[in-house]
User: Fold these one by one.
Assistant:
Number 1:
Amino acid sequence: MHKFILTIDRFNVGIGKAFGWYILILTIGGSYEVFVRYLLHNPTIWAYDLSYNMYGALFIMAGAYTLGRNAHVRGDVFYRLMPPRAQAGVDLVLFIFFFFPGILTLTIAGYFYAGESWGYHELSVYSPADIPIFPLKTLIPLAGLTLILQGISEVCRCFLCLKDGQWPPRLHDVEEMETAILHEREYAAKHSHETADKGPSA
Amino acid sequence: MSGGEVALLMMGLFIFTIMLGFPIVFTLMAMGLFFGYYAYATPDQFVDLSHVFHNQIFDLLVQNTFSILSNDTLTAVPLFLFMGYVVERANILDRLFYSVQVAARRLPGSLAVATLITCAMFATATGIVGAVVTLMGLLAFPTMLKAGYDTKLAAGVVCAGGCLGILIPPSILLILYAATAGESVVKLFAGAFFPGFVLAGFYILYVVGRAIIDPKLAPKLPKDQADVRFFEVMRALLTSFFPLAVLILSVLGAILLGLATPTEAAAVGALGSLILAAGYRELDFARLTESVYLTARTTAMVTYLFVGSWTFASVFAYLGGQHLVEELITGLNMNRVEFLMLTQFIIFLLGWPLEWTEIIIIFVPIFLPLLKHFGVDPVVFGILVALNIQTSFNTPPMAMAAYYLKGVAPPQVRLTQIFGGALPFVFMVFITMALLYIYPELALWLPNHLYQ
């Protein structure tokens, strides 16, 4: 089961990270627009549409990745004090009754919504560049699918935790700097403590 | 049950579920979906089974998702985050701190002043409170302790300085507020300009004042350290202070003077941060990928909240919940200042169990329609919120900044000392808020002047 979980995680991490690189296009596109507008007095007609398309794709496709990192914010004042089994119980029930209805709606209703846009080949109204809107709309059901997959992985995690009494480990990934530093120090402190304990007996 | 009562039930159930600890965005979506289904149900919804899925809420959820996808205010969020992560990972904090420190070496309490200025600049560029406090906790805090500074004072400046980036533009919080309030980011940035400087000014005056009154708290540097040649100071400032300062000021200047939209300025800022990091020879592929991935995750975390909250808020309002809250508050017959104090007090309390993103995206919108009734400018309100939220980083039980510092501080430093040290600074935030209650012009002058 753990292998199955990690396969889903890897898939969504890959998708999230791949779309993450859009930030570079967003950076360069925006800078290019400023450059040509002021230095060449010749603004682009596509920069505005490009910016929200890149931003939208970046964030919606990173949703499952974020869920897989357990990085969607929780009001965890009480949650973090609960034993892992209780956490898993709460999560399991709420994933089934709260998470899946919402995400299924996003996927199914999103499918029809995007289909409509494909139907009349919807174009952006913001510029004469005829930038299509339907690819961005298509990402709504696609993101929904990745979230359903990730939700299945999270539900499996809950089962494993209920069985073993502890959360199965997640994939290793880059951490926020403060988290990384704190972990390092906790580890170092624990380590030096252990050696200090061993010291006198040795 | 009347619609308003159902709306209150919805809010109650929502608060109960997030207290259980389930990810907030999915709780918002579920509440919006279930209660929205009830609110938009047609009379024949349950009579004929083929109509079970004919409910407007399904379309509403998707349409709201698309309006977040194509929201041109939020476009700036990933760019500013990316700029922040690149600057954060460029290892420039130590040289920045050193350059400010030698420039300020003659001032009383010079190390504390340098810490405040470094924190303010770094927090402005990165916008990430945790990283600033942690890194400065490793860098400036031990330096101050070694120089014989009072533990409480040293802890206070690190915590308070690290939170200044919440207010001083370009601040992510103000962008999120602009998106929820439908206000212009540019006006909010302009509005936050003076209050930010007033607050930072208070901090610096306080530190210098304490150091003059009681030099034991912040001893002068020993002669050999204080004796730096003018040329050396200029060199440090030119190489380590000005590049980042120029980057921040050009981003901010371009936005305030209307040369570029916040998104474009953020893009230029992100490019500038890459150039800056490359110039310091601190940009490699590993750091770039780390910044890209963290940007994707943090952006998703923030913007998904909007996806949930817009549907939640529209159902809450449709059921009459918004109306009920408005009736309740206008029924209290308060004047403008009382209204501001009440709402800010509620936001202060919300800061105990919740993080600032949730407060801005979910709870602040409930008060926004009331601003007009009390004659409060949304810009002023947003800046008050940004000030207010800084206090929750430094007051228990949340006190994120204090905990970050505790995590990296030497073991003899107690958490109570950090809280005690941050307290005067929290108090100065309250004074700045009071100034804004009385003189909203402090925030409004610049935007009114620039954009009339």
Number 2:
Amino acid sequence: MLERKNIDRVFQENLKDLEIYPNKVVWNNIEKSLHETNYKKTITLWQRLSGVAMVLILFLSGGIWYNNSKIVRTSINNVSASKVDNVTVENQVPIIQIPKNKQDNLVQGQNTKSKNLIKTQPIFVKNPNSNVIVTSSDISTVYQTVDNKYIVNKKDFIDEIKNKNVLVDADIENRIKEDNVKIVENKKWSVGPTVAPVYYNTLQSGSPISDNLSNSSKSTDDALSVGVKVNYQLTKKIQIQSGLNKVELAYNTKDVSAYISSVKNADNNINTNKPGVIVTPISNLQSDLPSLNDIHKSSVSGTLNQSIEYFELPIEMKYNLYDKKVGLNLVGGFSTFILTKNSVTIVSQDNITNLGEANNLNSFNFSGNLGVDLDYKINKSWYLNVAPMFKYQFNTYSNNSGNFRPYYFGVYSGLNYKF
Amino acid sequence: MSLKTLIQKCKKRDVISQSEIYQLFAGKLFVLSLKYSKTHQEAEDNLQEAFITIFKKINQFKFKGSFEGWMKRIVINTALQTYRKKNILNLVEENYPDEVEVEIDESEISLDFLLKIIQELPDRYRMVFNLYVLDGYPHKEIASLLGIAEGTSKSNLSRARLILKEKVELNQQKQSVGLF
């Protein structure tokens, strides 16, 4: 004889822990709707932020450039000024592209050709091993596996999926991988110290110090660039990086004699702020002597050293070519150099004679940067990187300075923390 | 990751956390939605609407009380909104004695059958039965939610119980006939 039971309790007890999983379309629609809302809010925020950033960057770089180019235009001929101008404009292009890339980031994972900003790849799938439900796009396959019923206990549901393996197909596995990648990508920022031995020289002969020394033999001292680097992941493939580096460069011109007049406002042939200095290669000493005899002077011979210290602010874009444990990226961008130290000296055997500060160095100048970046991922938070970079400097001098075209090559390495 | 962390991430509109929350609770909340809906399709639409509301209003959840309870209320409210839109005209009132005790034989009853007969109840009866029996709302609140008198809520409940009893017993008879 069956026991009589209150109907309320029958329903309460039976339906208590029941779980039924709806068709995947439900989540797709929810995600679509939320993404539209999120996108609208995010894009408004990004538009504001990137707008402010753009204005600041353009204002700073444009303002600096305008100031420098004014000096160039007044002091040198128009041809070289327009050359410099062109190069600068080309190198500003990456700044203008920043907001566009941010938009790309917001719609990653979808057809980039489409203007529709909704993700077409829903995130609903998780690794079956992590004891979480996996549903297919067609839930009817699940119903059929459970005696045509759409009501199943959660446990049975999972068991059915595991046993029949109906849902774990290649497509789902791919999405699981994408899902994992997206989780890693959540750490969008990285920061770390960077250090680089720097090799630098000029692409053409010439002397920024004096036309007299154009053909003299020149060398450079070893230098080190140290600083910090900040990196932001814009899209799966593109990162933008910036930072602050300090670098001290020293150009040496061998076998130089300097005659320093004690008479104020005496002629000089050196581009420094010290008056009455005549420099000449030692080999030309005899021919130059007659013109020098009639002035009161002291002379010193040795190596002419020009020391320059810069703070470098790079803005670079990094494009990922290969991304596994070891990653390979292409890097391009430009740097703004801020002159912080500037001195010209003659280093002889016994002493160092100060010839003042070079008066043709711009307080701000730029470089176009190109290189590759290799990274090694230690774990999810830390990675090492090595980046050989070539940097071609332009707008360094406020006149053509005997075709002196400085460049430098540095191998930047560092340990970076992602967050 | 704890539920609290997930909720906090959802407040920052983190899509992955939203999907985690969905996966954690979709099963339970879909059952809730099915109970309040006439069809499977209507239940899916309800659940969808409810989750969109949950994620849009998640900032209003201040960690006071259970998160699941908060979500359940949203699912029920969504179902009630659908009910109100559909039921502009009231049912013809039938008077049944308040609080009828209904008992049935306890036998193996499949879950899908139980859910099916709830869904087959007339809309108002289904709402009252769910709200009172399965989700613990008092008659006073049910009356206010559905815009009916408290007495109507009680008589609707009694009627719902009797309809359900009839269907269960009919099913049991069919099964016993099938056995012989």
